[in-house]
Structures are given as structure tokens and as C-alpha cells.
Specification:
This protein is α+β, with helices and mostly antiparallel strands. The protein contains 1 helix and 5 strands, in the order E-E-H-E-E-E. Strands 2-1-5 form a 3-stranded antiparallel beta sheet, covered by helices on one side. A two-stranded antiparallel sheet has the order 3-4.
Length: about 80
């Protein structure tokens, strides 16, 4: 188990949205990222104006609200070293 972070890049925004995944296996963290990509595609298809971004495991506790049409990429990174 290690710590990962889902990074959500937004068009016209220098600062991406971030979701910390603490104590996840690589497989579980990737499944969370894929779930968010699926939800994003569903929101775009339904022309939803705002998407409450939260992983299937309930992270973050309060969903981040983002315009699905501004999301350009969803990355998964492994956190290395001490995290606060």
C-alpha cells in the first residue's frame, strides 16, 4: 500500500484539482481514476453542467464540483517521500 494522487487538469486553469488516495494499492488507485474517467464521459454525454468529483471510495469527503467540459485530463501519480 502506498499513497497516490489523482490530478484533474482543467482547461484555462494553471492549477489542477487534486484528490489524495492514501494507503491504496496501485490497482485500486488506477480503478479509482478509471471510475472518474467513466463518470466524466457520462456527464459529458448527458450534457451535465457541473460534476461532483469524488472517487468510488468516497475521497474527498466533500466532492469537488467541476465543469466536466473544462476537464482535459485525469492523471494518477504515486506520491514519493513524506506527505503531510
Amino acid at each position: 500500500m502506498t499513497d497516490y494522487e489523482i490530478v484533474i487538469h482543467l482547461r484555462d486553469s494553471a492549477e489542477p484539482a487534486r484528490i489524495a488516495l492514501r494507503g491504496f494499492s496501485g490497482i485500486d488507485a488506477e480503478a479509482e481514476r478509471e471510475g472518474l474517467i467513466y463518470d466524466l464521459n457520462e456527464a459529458r454525454s448527458a450534457e451535465v453542467p457541473m460534476l461532483a468529483v469524488q472517487t468510488k471510495s468516497g475521497f474527498p469527503p466533500d466532492p469537488v464540483r467541476l465543469d466536466p467540459h473544462r476537464i482535459t485530463e485525469i492523471d494518477l501519480i504515486e506520491m514519493v517521500g513524506p506527505q503531510e
